[in-house]
Design goal:
The chain is built from one helix and no strands. It has a domain of 32 residues. By secondary structure, the protein is mainly alpha-helical.
């Protein structure tokens, strides 16, 4: 067996299995990353919906309070006119 054949055989016996093992590990890590990204997207979507709901509620409360204060200012203005 020549040197080329020995190197080729060593590559097939040692390096090739290690490469296949690394490819398998890369696939596993890629799937894990994809799963993590999907969960993160879901959490962001859920949090965004919650924030939208809270902001809408606060917006409604603020508008209500502004209207109430506007009414009080109108009332005070009417009281001050005759005086």
């Amino acid at each position: 067996m020549g040197v080329y054949e020995q190197i080729r055989q060593a590559f097939q016996d040692v390096v090739a299995p290690e490469i296949r093992s690394l490819q398998s590990e890369i696939r596993r890590l890629d799937e894990k990353a994809d799963s993590g990204m999907k969960r993160l997207d879901e959490k962001i979507g859920s949090t965004s919906q919650n924030l939208d709901g809270k902001l809408s509620s606060i917006r409604g409360e603020l508008l209500s309070e502004i209207r109430r204060l506007d009414g009080r200012l109108d009332s005070l203005e009417r009281e001050l006119r005759p005086a």
